[in-house]
Design a protein that fits this description.
The chain is α/β, with parallel strands linked by helices. It is built from 5 helices and 13 strands.
Length: 186
């Protein structure tokens, strides 16, 4: 099936998901991540602002700030993402595509990230993902250090056996759902 057909199907399904189910599953994904060594070891991490029933990241943000970690969020600049440090979730304002973006000016180079939480529409069992189709995250991930962990947050319902992947598509290191953790870095 072509990428766009897969993307459309999963966006419709995610949008139809009851909000209570999203809140519950998001909490489980975030707790799974927060209990992991991935969170403990990351000094500088990037999160996304959830939209359209995506897995939320707010609990991770609050604990990262509380722990004194450098926390950054992406902001769209042209065809790319730039990452900006935030001190609080109140540093986020509506930006491109209605997504909350950082309003500050404390830029952090992608190469400085230890870990980046990556959103997606659908994920597979070997670390591939489909996003919204504009390539923002694939371009950013191509600039990450080789030891930067690329972690996907997803609901179990967003998993498929395999996805079509192009040469420019960047694979994840880890995928976390409400019930499972997949480590692709081995």
């Amino acid at each position: 099936m072509p990428k766009q057909s897969i993307r459309t199907q999963f966006l419709v399904e995610r949008k139809a998901r009851p909000i209570d189910s999203c809140i519950d599953a998001s909490a489980k994904v975030q707790q799974r991540f927060l209990r992991s060594s991935l969170f403990r070891r990351a000094d500088c991490l990037a999160l996304y602002s959830a939209i359209n029933n995506e897995v939320a990241t707010d609990a991770v943000a609050m604990l990262a700030i509380e722990a004194g970690k450098t926390l950054v969020y992406p902001r769209i600049k042209g065809d790319d993402l730039e990452f900006v440090e935030v001190q609080s979730l109140s540093d986020l304002v509506p930006g491109a595509f209605g997504v909350l973006e950082p309003m500050g000016c404390r830029m952090v180079a992608v190469a400085a990230l230890d870990l980046i939480i990556v959103p997606g529409v659908v994920f597979d069992h070997v670390g591939h993902r489909l996003g919204y189709g504009r390539g923002f995250y694939d371009r950013a991930l191509s600039l990450c250090r080789t030891d930067c962990l690329k972690v996907g947050f997803a609901y179990d319902a967003q998993l498929v056996e395999s996805l079509p992947a192009a040469k420019h598509d960047k694979a994840l290191s880890v995928l976390m759902t409400e019930s499972q953790t997949f480590d692709f870095s081995a």
